Amino acid sequence: MNIGKYLVMYSEDLKLKNYSSSTIENYKSQVGLFLKYFDSIVTKPSEISERQIKDWLLLANSINGRKHRISAVKLFYKYTGKQPLKFKHIEYPKSEKKLPRVIDKDFLIDKISKIENIKHKLIITLAYSTGMRVSEVCNLKIKDVDFQRKLIHIKNAKGRKDRIVPLSQTVSDLMIKYFDLYKPTDYVFNGQNEPKYSPRSCNEIVKKYIGKEYHFHLLRHSSFTALLESGVDLRIIQKIAGHSNVKTTECYTHVSNQFLSKVNLPI
């Protein structure tokens, strides 16, 4: 099987459908693994049976991993393989209803206050203050920060959507101080040898200053939980988070300590 040829064709098909470059790379990676798995068994993708596809999907280590595999391979057969009926009887698995993990607000603020490196402090402070994803922090450009109106314009985020998030005075002051010291050019956070900071570096910063058991995305969950507990309307949090459906935002009501503490228990 000429796997390279199919991956090039698949990439072109996804580009025509206006999928983001990150989604294309992720889906290509999954389809590449899929085709490689059957390379010694079949001569072309059309020969792979529905039963074989199901068996391969079940090899995924998690439900989310299986869903990711389905999304990638299903589109491959729809656009590139021209066999959409391959997935007629293959459904997405039921989602695991896990609550997001959050970091205690007081603990987090105390840790942030002790960071002496201005750049590292700003990265964590910005993420916690706005709930921005790690990719959004890395891709943030100087021109998209409106200091006068105290707003940040996040462009081409998850799902190729733009949104506006508020910029607090504290973060604004810290960012100006950082600009004076580091003098970035295009992106707010320049990498050491790259035009922008990497998600891996951001995660390393969180582990260094907050704790090895934490990762960057927990700052996002913690931000929205803190906003909810401070009385911010759920619809406003939905807009800041960039959630298409408010049900996605509602998960934070289940992890809020304040909400739980107000429950009148029977005894």
H/E element order:
HHHHHHHEEEHHHHHH
Q: Uncertain runs with pLDDT below 50, 5 residues or more?
A: none
What is the structural class? mainly alpha
- How many strands? 3
Strand count, sense and barrel status of the largest sheet are: 3 strands, antiparallel
Placed side by side, the strands forming the largest sheet appear as 1-2-3
Note the gap between the termini: 67 Å
The number of helical runs is 13
Mean of residue pLDDT values: 91
Fraction of residues in β-strands: under 5%
The percent range for helix content is 40-55%
The general outline is globular
Tell me the Rg in angstroms: 22 Å
Question: Could you provide a short overview of the structure?
Answer:
Helix content is 52%, strand content 4%.
Q: Would you mind describing this structure in some detail?
A:
With 267 residues, this protein is mainly α. The protein has helices at residues 3-16, 21-37, 50-57, 63-80, 105-113, 118-130, 134-139, 169-182, 199-209, 217-229, 234-241, 246-249, 257-261, and strands at residues 145-146, 151-154, 163-166.
Write the layout of secondary structure elements.
Blueprint lengths: L2 H14 L4 H17 L12 H8 L5 H18 L24 H9 L4 H13 L3 H6 L5 E2 L4 E4 L8 E4 L2 H14 L16 H11 L7 H13 L4 H8 L4 H4 L7 H5 L6
Antiparallel strand pairs: 1-2, 2-3
Helix pairs in contact: 1-2, 2-4, 6-8, 6-10
